[in-house]
Specification:
0% strand; 65% helix; 101 residues; 4 helices; mainly alpha
Length: 101
């Protein structure tokens, strides 16, 4: 995910501007997040993985925030609405979106 985010950030720069590349990276972020969540849901009933469930939730939350921040320059209302819904209404910058880990 971090590499996808960094590539999307690069696609916003003037010397490499490519909205199409940003959209492709956003789509990849969604596909990866969905695949990750589907894989993790197979184990949701195992109580021994309670800490693992918290980590899964945190990573999916981060993926939503990442998507929203990267989407704002292309679809500002949608990106902002998603940030608002997850309680990050003041975090709209895309710089450093790949620096989660």
């Amino acid at each position: 995910m971090r590499h996808l985010a960094m590539d999307a950030e690069r696609a916003y720069r003037a010397d490499a501007f490519s909205p199409q590349r940003v959209i492709r990276r956003l789509e990849e972020i969604v596909r990866n997040a969905v695949a990750f969540l589907e894989t993790q849901c197979r184990h949701e009933n195992l109580s021994v993985l309670r800490d693992h469930h918290r980590t899964t939730f945190a990573l999916n939350f981060w993926a939503m925030a990442l998507f929203a921040r990267l989407a704002i320059p292309i679809v500002p209302e949608t990106g902002q609405r998603l940030l608002n819904r997850i309680g990050l209404e003041n975090q709209v910058t895309i710089e450093g979106t790949g620096d989660f880990v």
